[in-house]
Structure formats: structure tokens, C-alpha cells
Amino acid sequence: MSDEEGSPEARERRRRSIAIALVLAGLAILFFVMTIVRLQGHVTAFFQ
């Protein structure tokens, strides 16, 4: 591990990157779930 990787700036950058990745993953999951729910509504209406 080099000196730069252990610096406070590098740790803060890593924390920020992880936070952004988690937010993006959460949004992707939310959009996926919303799409599935909407499609289920259309499928059930089609077969009634």
C-alpha cells in the first residue's frame, strides 16, 4: 500500500465512490422493481 492510498483524501474519495455506487445500485433496483410491478398490472388486466 503506497502512502497516497492511506492518505485521508484517498480514504474520503473511496468512501464517496462507495456511497455513489450504492445510490446508483439502489436506483437501478428501484427502477427494476417499479417496471416489474407495472408490467404485472398490465399482464393481469390483459387476462381478465
Keywords:
single chain; 48 residues; mainly alpha; 1 helix; 81% helix; 0% strand; rod-shaped
Molecular structure report:
The protein is mainly α and 48 residues long. Helices cover 81% and strands 0% of the residues. The protein is rod-shaped, with a radius of gyration of 20 Å. The chain has one helix at residues 8-46. It has one domain. The relative contact order is 0.07.
Task: Give a quick rundown of the structure.
It is built from one helix and no strands. The chain has one helix at about 10-45. The protein is rod-shaped, with a radius of gyration of 20 Å.
What's the gyration radius in Å? 20 Å
Strand proportion, as a percent range, falls in: under 5%
- Give the proportion of residues in helices: over 70%
General form = rod-shaped
Layout of secondary structure:
Layout: H1 8-46
